[in-house]
Amino acid sequence: MLDHIGLQVHSYERSKAFYLEALAPLGYQLILEYADWGGFGIGGKPDFWIQVGKQVRPGLHIAFRADSREMVDAFYRAALDAGGKDNGPPGLREIYHPDYYGTFVMDPDGHNIEAVCHTPVQR
Hints:
Blueprint: E1 5-9, H1 12-23, E2 29-33, E3 37-42, E4 45-52, E5 61-65, H2 69-81, E6 85-86, E7 91-92, E8 101-106, E9 112-117
Parallel strand pairs: 1-4, 5-9
Antiparallel strand pairs: 2-3, 3-4, 6-8, 7-8, 8-9
């Protein structure tokens, strides 16, 4: 199990603004902030960090777990509103498993950011 992950970005302020808006539907907040880096998380513990640094190419893929399909949809809308680029609209990705509901958005630095819900729909 991962405890936290860090991502180097070109512009801290641009990426901070993007992630503040994009991750809000998932319950993430900016918890700690320093001059050119900060940590986002839920419940007071940062587990996703961004920091100005040498950009990683090709971009990384990071998936955030969502508790519902509605949260995945809200993440997608918020990420696009924050300047992200569509890389796969919300929907089932049955290639992974029958209840894999996810979406993909490219962040300002070209990283592939995903929100995914694994919860089966009550039938």
